[in-house]
Amino acid sequence: MTDPVAADPSPGIQSRVLVVGAGFGGLYAARSLARHRASVTLVDKRGYQTFQPLLYQVATGLLPRDVVEYPIHEVHGVESITATVDHIDLVASQARFADGVSRSFDYLVLATGASVNFFGTPGAAEHALPLYTADDALAIKAALQRAGQADQDLHIVVIGAGPTGVEVTGAIRDVVDYVLPHTFPAMARHQVHLHLVDHAKAPLSHFSAESQADATRVLTEAGVILHMGTTVTEVRGDGVVLEDGSHLAAEVVIWAGGLTVNAPTTSPAPATDSAGRITIDATLRMSGHDHVYAIGDAAATAVDPLPQLGSVAKQQGLHVAHSIRRQIRGKEPKAFTYRDLGEMAMIRHDHAVVEAGPRHHEVTGLAAFTMWLGLHAALLPDNGDRLAAVEAWAHENLTGRSQFLAD
Fold first, then answer.
1. Residue 138 burial (C-beta neighbours within 10 Å; 0-12, 13-18, 19+)
2. Fold of domain 15-45+83-116+259-328
3. Cβ contacts of residue 304 below 8 Å, gap of 6+?
4. Confidence check: pLDDT of 124 > 50
5. Sign of dihedral through CA atoms 58, 61, 67, 71?
6. Residue 303 DSSP label
7. pLDDT score of 169 more than 80
8. The pTM is what?
9. Helices vs. strands in the chain: H and E counts, helices first
10. In this structure, which topology does domain 124-257+341-399 adopt according to CATH?
11. How would you classify residue 244: left for phi > 0, otherwise alpha for psi between -120 and 50, otherwise beta?
């Protein structure tokens, strides 16, 4: 089956491109297309792009919320709609919004990302705090504020030792050591017990053995109690239960344990892989639908799927914009080639691990920390947000205090 759009619009008519989702992929696709001859509509249920790599800093009071939220109405030359797309009819080339309104398109870009996956763990949805949206980050911040004002020891469990889990754990350790005692003086009299749990054998399991060892050393020296090679079987109001039946007491449980695909229903239903991601070809298009693209966390090729990283989604968004421009000119899209930039994770306020480039050259410590700051500042979509982030980082590093934890 092919799309009903048999040919591209004539040169005098702008092609209608509907981009669903304003993550890295959707935002960069919409921005790039808007600079060329296309009528672009960007739809997102929240109305802004959330810069997820820095959410943990909002959760720990190192940054304000508005730095990590970029309103889609500020994307120049793009029609923005804050709405939920609940169904897409590929035969009619129409998307239906939750309020019943429909929008037709000539090209569709699905960049709907993912949402939190609790993997059916009992009690997780009720008692654990995820970290995927700005609202999630503020909920964690509020829990830390309440705990900081309580006249008792504090127990925190972080579930998931990938980059998000490691970064939020390290940031909490920094906040506990340097910020809470100044912000909430009662905390100086109490201990904070911080646990990190993961089924992998070491933190940052997808990184090199050297990076894993470095993260293990830094976290352990900081007093983080690691529970590697085990899983959480239940989350309760007073803590978590591990697979051996042991119980970790906790007033705050943070879930950084995994994601699931977030996508509207589509007819006909696209092929998906075992993780539920839409199967795409080498050009990032759905099979049999020449004018429909899927990118980012919601999509994957059948062979050698790429990791769910912001750098992947951004490059795919730019590639899709180029491909659609080629199609408008009557040319075929080219296959997508990912430029591997490596991976990185912040561990503490002055220490990070970076595996740079396609060969993942390892950098650790202060040099890696500086690289992390520079890259994330550059990736923020707005100059004002970049300046605000740099100012907040400078304040925290010079004073050891957060400007935003107590607000």
1. middle
2. FAD/NAD(P)-binding domain (3.50.50)
3. none
4. yes
5. positive
6. S
7. yes
8. 0.89
9. 10, 26
10. FAD/NAD(P)-binding domain (3.50.50)
11. alpha
